[in-house]
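Let's practice the habit of predicting before peeking. Look at the sequence and jot down your guess about where helices and strands might fall. Then scroll down.
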Amino acid sequence: MDELHARLERGPREPGDSLTAARRAAVLIPLFVRDGALWILFTRRTETVEHHRGQISFPGGAEEADDETLLATALRETREEIGVAESDVRYLGALSPLTTVTDFYVEPFVGAIPSPYAFTVEQAEIAEMIEAPVAALLDPKILETKILPGREEPVLFYHYGQHVIWGATGRMLQELLEAIR
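Done guessing? Here is the structure:
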């Protein structure tokens, strides 16, 4: 974790443009170690949430007036969605901000969490928690790149088991995996 923290702190973090998006948001990319291997925790959103229904994501959401920083937003949302206390997250660094096609400016933060952990899932928002070993996500055979209509840049699709990780989450995952390599 120390090595990843150092890489994230010195890595090329591209600036985002928070002025062009309607809403500011943040996510936490939770990492943990199991049996000596690094894993990533994803969530699958319910079909009843307002944005990104049924999609694989990281815990997070929109900034609220009481949030002092976007890191505070990511930590608060992680606590609300999956029950991880802010004090249980070891901050490792940040990835490049991005603006989604749904007009959110999102800052992704990376943090280590203890494992095992007694999660408390907010079932109105989270349909499923997905744990994936980083080694499996680094396999180039699971990555598909497509050009979708109306998009200038290719869209990444990570096929992990029955799950497809794509869109903004796929872009964040790609940057994280590059830092881990």
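How did you do? Residues 167-180 form the longest helix (14 residues).
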